[in-house]
């Protein structure tokens, strides 16, 4: 009642001023909890808008493109050293570039292209390419959180580097994974004249794309052509534009618990693999010193034990010639693609320690890597690639199916029709082999050799050694032995008789 009376006693001018203040308060964007839950697509965009509103002098949101289901793909630029940053002195600001530029279409903004000797200082981080890898999106949001809401603790990195972070490359697949199928990996663009939906965006980039898996029903399907997907086209536009400014590219995935460098499409190592290995090792050491978690480091094809064609990391490093590019596979098999919400904050913080250290290390290595005069890219091996346009002849049956490099298999596999006769013949061979082994057990074996028990390997058997005779001269010529050569443990070595038993 008192409030109504007070409202009546206010003048029209006072009421209008109060209404304006109320409307202004309604424009304030609430902050989602990024550290303790998996956010929806709308909440992720809401967090980016919240940061842009709170830190307008060094944070800006860019719209990179739209998906098949008309969702926006957004990237956040964090650029401390710009002419609009009021926390810098006027003398420094007048020599710095603007925070952003208006795009050619006049609707969206684009990052500023830096020129000069110090143009390569941008770190690009992308996540959420695979829909089911929720933890990669939360980790990218944690990186944004560290560089914005906790910028005073990371001011050293912000003064040296500019960051462009795309926390969710595949929003359509992510929303489908959240609401319907948690194991969904691809995007959600349907393929014409088929019942199948989706393409693996990390096989759709134009670097030896033909080597990728061409079966449309596979989780790693490469698409109809390079950059056939709206998500990869949006990434291509921003990466091609920023290629001259990029210093370090990082792609976040899960759950291999490893930090990997190119190449993925072939078994060769790049020329600067030692520098890339040093960069990966710096992140590995930082995470281990933080909480003891042990990451693996190495090339993509080596650690995954297969070749992966058409990936974004190979495209950035091989085609755009960015000095440094890595893949960070977050932990771990025990936690899966979507760890419990209690682990989001821990994984995000420990990953940031490694990512920050790799950013610092990349700044130190910027003068040691010169990509302009490199030789042409190595070609995939013949048995790993169909990119050369040469049909690989085969003497196998017509039911053969070739899985080229870039998928789950790195070699050609053959599918043969199995019949009851095939199983019967295999069973007969096994029975015949068992009878021959039993017959062999009855034979007299050399001294010190025991028959191999069914189901045991030689390493599982207790060793039995012949007694050492004490007659004759020993190796030192003083007597007391028969000259038997001894191992470091004082036991005789047995070579040829064992191989006879195993045949």
UniProtKB/TrEMBL annotation:
Keyword S-adenosyl-L-methionine (UniProt): no
Biased composition (Basic residues): 413-424
Active-site feature positions: 329
SUPFAM superfamilies xref list: Zn-dependent exopeptidases
Region (Disordered) residue spans: 376-426, 469-489
Cofactors, names only: Zn(2+)
GO CC terms, sorted: extracellular space
Alphabetical list of InterPro entries matching this protein: Peptidase_M14 (IPR000834)
BP term (GO), one: proteolysis
Keyword Ion transport attributed: no
Compositional bias (Polar residues): 383-402
Domain Peptidase M14 positions: 37-362
Family: Belongs to the peptidase M14 family.
Protein name (Swiss-Prot/TrEMBL): Peptidase M14 domain-containing protein
Organism: Drosophila simulans (Fruit fly)
């Amino acid at each position: 009642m008192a409030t109504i009376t007070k409202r009546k006693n206010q003048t029209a001018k006072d009421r209008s001023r109060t209404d304006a203040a109320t409307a202004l308060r309604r424009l304030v964007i609430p902050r989602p909890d990024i550290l303790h839950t998996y956010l929806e697509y709308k909440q992720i965009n809401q967090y980016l808008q919240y940061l842009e509103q709170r830190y307008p002098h060094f944070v800006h949101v860019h719209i990179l493109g739209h998906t098949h289901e008309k969702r926006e793909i957004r990237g956040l630029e964090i650029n401390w050293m710009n002419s609009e940053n009021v926390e810098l002195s006027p003398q420094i600001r007048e020599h710095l570039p603007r925070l952003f530029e208006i795009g050619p279409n006049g609707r969206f903004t684009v990052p500023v292209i830096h020129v000069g000797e110090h143009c390569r200082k941008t770190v690009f981080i992308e996540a959420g390419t695979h829909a089911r890898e929720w933890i990669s999106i939360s980790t990218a949001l944690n990186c944004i959180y560290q560089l914005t809401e906790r910028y005073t603790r990371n001011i050293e990195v912000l003064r040296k580097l500019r960051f462009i972070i795309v926390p969710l490359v595949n929003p359509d697949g992510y929303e489908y994974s959240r609401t319907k199928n948690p194991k969904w990996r691809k995007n959600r663009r349907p393929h014409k004249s088929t019942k199948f939906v989706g393409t693996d965006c990390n096989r759709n980039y134009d670097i030896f794309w033909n080597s990728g898996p061409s079966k449309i029903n596979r989780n790693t399907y490469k698409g109809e052509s390079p950059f056939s997907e709206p998500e990869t086209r949006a990434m291509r536009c921003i990466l091609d534009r920023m290629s001259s400014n990029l210093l370090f590219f990082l792609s976040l995935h899960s759950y291999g618990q490893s930090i990997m460098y190119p190449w993925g499409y072939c078994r060769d190592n790049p020329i600067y693999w030692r520098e890339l290995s040093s960069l990966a090792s710096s992140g590995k050491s930082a995470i281990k010193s933080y909480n003891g978690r042990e990451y693996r480091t190495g090339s993509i094809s080596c650690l995954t034990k297969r070749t992966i064609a058409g990936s974004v990391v190979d495209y950035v490093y091989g085609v755009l010639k960015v000095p440094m590019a890595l893949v960070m596979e977050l932990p771990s098999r025990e936690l899966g693609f979507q760890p419990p919400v209690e682990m989001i904050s821990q994984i995000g913080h420990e990953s940031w320690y490694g990512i920050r250290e790799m950013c610092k290390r990349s700044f130190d290595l910027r003068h040691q890597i010169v990509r302009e005069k490199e030789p042409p890219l190595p070609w995939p091996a013949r048995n790993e690639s169909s990119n050369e346009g040469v049909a690989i002849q085969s003497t196998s049956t017509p039911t053969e199916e070739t899985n080229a490099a870039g998928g789950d298999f790195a070699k050609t596999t053959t599918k043969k029709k199995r019949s009851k006769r095939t199983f019967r013949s295999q069973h007969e061979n096994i029975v015949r082999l068992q009878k021959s082994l039993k017959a062999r057990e009855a034979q007299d074996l050399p001294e010190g050799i025991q028959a191999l028990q069914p189901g045991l390997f030689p390493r599982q058997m207790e060793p039995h050694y012949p007694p050492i005779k004490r007659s004759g001269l020993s190796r030192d010529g003083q007597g007391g032995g028969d000259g038997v050569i001894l191992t470091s443990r004082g036991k005789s070595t047995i070579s040829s008789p064992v191989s006879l038993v195993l045949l």
